[in-house]
Amino acid sequence: MSGYTLRLPEEESVVLSGAAAERLIRRGDGDGALLYIAVVRSRGTGDEESLRAALGWPEERLRRAFAVLAGEGLVSLPREAGEDGKAVPTAGSALTPPPERQVEYTRADMARALEGAEFAALTSAVEGKLGKKLTTPDLAMLLGLYDQVGLPADVIFLLVGFCAERTAQQYGPGRRPTLRQIEREGYAWARLGLMTQESAAAYIKDYQQRRKALPELMRLLRLGDRQPGPSEERYLLSWAGMGFDQAVIELAYDKTLLKCKELKWPYMNKILASWHQKGLHTLEEVEAGDRPAGSLRTRRPPEGAASTPDRTAELQRMDRYLRRMRQEQGKEER
User: Which residues is 81 bridged to in the sheet?
Assistant: First the structure.
C-alpha cells in the first residue's frame, strides 16, 4: 500500500491521551484498542452489558479485552471472591479509574511550589473560585494535578470552574466541590487527553450542550422536575450525546417497564446502546431495523396480493384441516 487518506466522520470526537495511545500501539492487541475506544466514547457510563451490545462481542471476548487493558493499567477491574476464596478480577465496573500513584508532598515541597509565580497565581485563583482558603491537604492535591499529572495551570482553572458549576447544578447554589472531587475529575481529564485549554473548553461546551436535554429526559422517564443524581446524570448525558429522537427514548423506557416492571437504568442503557450501535436514532429507523429476523411484521405480501385476507375463508380452511387431522388420528388409534 503506497499511501492512504484519512477520512473523519463529522460526528463527536473521541480523544485518547498520548500515553494511552502509546500503550495500545505497543501492546498491538486489536480487541483491547477497540474496547478502550468504546470505553472512552461512553464517557464512563457504559457498563459491561452496554459495551458488549455496542461491540457485538460475546462475554468471554469482552473479558479477555478487559484483561488486556487492565494489564496496561488503562482500566482497573473490581475483584470478587473466587471458588477458592481468593480475589479474582471481574469486568463488572471496568470504567472505575485505576488507582493513581500519589506523590507525598512535604510542606517544604509545597512552599517551593508556591515560590513559582504560575502555581502561586493558580492557588490564589482556585481559592477565589471556591471561596475558601486551601488547607494543606487541598494544596497537596492541587500540586499533584499540576506537578504529577501535568495539567497546565489554565486547564486546572477550567477544571475547577467546571466542577464548581456542576456541583451547584446538582446540589444547589452555594455548594462547592471538594478538592478530592476536583482531583478525581482531573485524572479523568488527563485520561481523555484534555491537556490544552482548547480541548478542555470543547469538552465543557459539549457537556453543557448535552446537559440542556436533562430536564426533558427526566420528565420523559416520569422522574419529575428534580435534579438527577450523579449516576442518573451519567446515563442521561450519554443518551443525550447519542442523538436519539424523543420518541425513541420513550420506546426504550416502555420496553424497560414491560421487562423489569420499573425503571432499570442498566437495562434501558443496554437497549439504547444497541440501537446507537446499529445507527437507529429515529422511531422509523428503530421499527425498521430492530425487528427479529423472520418476524411476521417483516414479511410483505407479494405484489398484487390483497392487503386484508378473507378471514372467513381462512377460518374455514383451518377448520377443515383440524377435522382431517382428528380423523387421521382416530384411524391410527383403531
Answer: 87
Report yes or no: 153 and 121 within 8 Å, Cβ to Cβ. yes
CA dist., res. 231 & res. 46, Å (int): 11
Q: Which residue has the cell 420496553?
A: 255
The rounded distance, in Å, linking the Cα atoms of 225 and 214 is 10
DSSP letter at 91 equals -
* Strand 87-89 with 79-81, pairing: antiparallel
Tell me what percent of the chain is helix, strand and coil, each rounded to the nearest 5.
60, 0, 35
Residue 288 is placed in which grid cell? 425498521
The model's pLDDT over 262-310, given as tens digits with 9 standing for 90+, comes to 999 999 999 999 999 889 999 999 998 876 544 444 444 445 444 444 5
Q: How many angstroms separate the CA atoms of 283 and 125, rounded?
A: 48
d(CA 138, CA 184): 13
Cell of 13: 470526537
Q: Please state, in angstroms and rounded to a whole number, the distance separating the CA atoms of residues 249 and 221.
A: 9
- pLDDT tens-digit profile of 164-217? 999 998 888 889 999 999 999 999 898 888 889 999 999 999 999 888 999 999
Overall size of the chain counted in residues: 334
Residue 264 DSSP symbol: -
Q: For residue 191, give the nearest of 236, 139, 151, 231 by alpha carbon.
A: 151
Asked if 54 contacts 65 with a C-beta cutoff of 8 angstroms, the reply is: no
